[in-house]
Amino acid sequence: MDRSWMNSNRLSIDYKEGVNKFIQFAFENLPNNNGRFYCPCMKCFNIPKLHFELIKSHLICHGVNQSYTKWIWHGESVTDPIASNTN
Ligand SMILES: [Zn+2]
Fold it and tell me: How far is Cα 76 from Cα 26, in angstroms, rounded to an integer?
């Protein structure tokens, strides 16, 4: 998953595509979401659950929280699959 968009200019195409991919990621990894996810924008910090359309506009208006590099609130596992060699 490419996350370079998180450091891109909020007005860039890369950023907007990244936002769309992020929402898609959440939909794929969080079943039974009702279209609502934690908002990872600079104002919400993953505290409220918002409708995905609202999250998109938040991410473009406020920017994404750049320290949120592991998307644990959006279905990504906490353990790094590369680091853990036990399977
Ligand atoms: Zn927000």
Answer: 9
CA of 8 to the centre of ligand 1 (A): 18
Task: Specify if 87 maps to a domain.
Answer: no
User: What is the spatial distance between Cα 63 and Cα 77, in angstroms, rounded to a whole number?
Assistant: 23
Q: Render pLDDT for 30-74 as a digit per residue (tens, 0 to 9).
A: 999 999 999 999 999 999 999 999 999 999 999 999 999 999 999
Could you tell me the residue range of the domain that residue 25 belongs to? 4-74
CA of 26 to the centre of ligand 1 (A): 15
Cα-to-centroid distance, 16 and ligand 1 (Å): 15
CA 22–ligand 1 middle distance (angstroms): 14
Map residue 54 onto helix, strand or coil. helix
SS3 call for 64? strand
Whether residue 10 lies inside any domain: the answer is yes
Cα of 77 from ligand 1 centre, angstroms: 22
